[in-house]
Amino acid sequence: MKRLLFTFLLFISALLRAQSSITVNSPNGGEHIQQGKSTTISWSFTGTINNVRIEYSIDGGTNWIQISSSAPSANSGPNSGNYSWTVPIGSTTDQARIRISDAVAPSVYDISDNNFSIINLDLLTPNGSEHLQAGKTYNVTWTNSTNLSSVDIKYTTDDGGSWGDVVAGYNASFHSYSWSVPSNIGSDRCKIKILDAANALVSDISQNDFSIMDVDLVNPANSSRIQAGSVYDITWTNTTNLVNVKLEYSTDNGTSWSVISSSVSASPGLYHWTVPPGIGSDQCKIRISDAAASGSVSDMNTGAFSIISLTLTSPVGGEYLQGNNPYTFTWSSSSNLSNVDIAYTTNNGVSWFPLATGVNASSHSYTMTIPPDISSDQCKLKISDALSPAISSISPNVFSVRQLSLTLPNGGEYVKAGSSCNITWTRSNNVTNVSLEYSTNNGSSWTTIVSPLDASLGTYTWNVPGNLAADQALIRISDSQAPSQVKDVSDASFH
How far is residue 485's CA from residue 495's CA, in Å, rounded to a whole number? Predict the structure, then answer.
């Protein structure tokens, strides 16, 4: 009796299975799915099927590879199921199919109606942590299987909240696209997404955020002229996500670079640069870059500017110059300075007056007769670039210009020994005391008459020694404060 019941049950089971069927719903042909990622295989069935076997083929059904030997048949509904399949790496094809069969009755099965494609697409760069510069070009790169014909590329600046188009329908086999990064972007939450143009579900995205930032050098501008040894303000603009910048300069048009500061806060947009002394070049550039990723985000002069060296060496302060006498002004300068202008002040720089213009800078000196109408103890000299007057050098301390002129005896007079003789002179108000001397040997030696003497008197009665007899007599008057620098002597001998 038991045997008969068992046989009957087998007959009923076989009869029910004979009435069962399976239908592959997806992928069922024409789809593009991506290797290395998960895709959902779904089916429906009739009759009694408890578990299904799932297989795939990459050659149109000639050969089959098992995905699962026994998966629940109805895990998504009374007569439907699905399976999350991680598509194997290396399975790219345009002849993929899925076969689903009853796990205990393989004759009950279904196959995808048509071939579908398994595609490889991997974004290489930018893939996270890069620093890209707004307004410049950057290569988006990827690898893909040969059965992917075209791609769309998009970008986000809010970590995927919204996406903007980079390019659509681009030839996938090029594996690279030169992206002009939009201007005026500053974000640390950027990503790139590359998609199969025929099926957006096949895609890859930057694994981590990258940054888009910008910096623009403002000063020094091209063709500027700045002075070696001076303090110059380097200025720039930048996006807020650029934290620190590196500053460098070049004097050979960018062939080599010297560091100004390896890291300075970007937010002020300003750096007070003490220009190294002694530089002379018309091939100078400034480069500003992201201190965190040197070279990735940067800007520099498109042309060149000049650094010019100019230093006044005389007078530098403390000198006594005399009107109507020659004096040689001296300076040092770089070879790229052509001409200089020379000016003076008598009030310690409150106002300036020209002395000479367009003087050849390479001569490094200029000799002139001090004008007779200048007198001050608050004098300074200024030498400046004829093209850029801001490039200049000024006496660090004040010097004096004084006037002192002997008027009698001034040569040819006859003075009697033992008599009195008036010595007279003119002077500027800053000559307060004078010394008077005489010589009987045309200036080879001198004998003091009086010292010091109030210079404002303008005259002195000299009691000529009784034993004085000479045909080469001279009188010398000198500023008691600067006797070797401010003085005058009879133009010729008297008797």
Answer: 27
